[in-house]
Amino acid sequence: MTRVDREIINKLLSEAREALDEIRELFLRKILESL
């Protein structure tokens, strides 16, 4: 695996992590609203 490959993978991972945080936030808000 080259250095460029690793940089691309790290970038994708950090973007995926941010997306998951947003999804989790939306999900929790939906649950709280339905209580």
What's the rounded overall pLDDT mean?
97
| Head-to-tail CA distance between termini | 48 Å
Which sheet architecture does the biggest sheet show? Answer: none
List the domain count as a whole number: 1
Can you describe what's shown?
Helices cover 91% and strands 0% of the residues. The chain is an all-alpha fold and 35 residues long. The chain has one domain (1-35). The longest helix is centred in the middle third of the chain and has 32 residues, at 3-34. The radius of gyration is 15 Å and the shape is rod-shaped. It starts with a helix and ends with a helix.
Task: Describe the protein's topology.
Layout: H1 3-34
In short:
With about 35 residues, this protein is mostly helical.
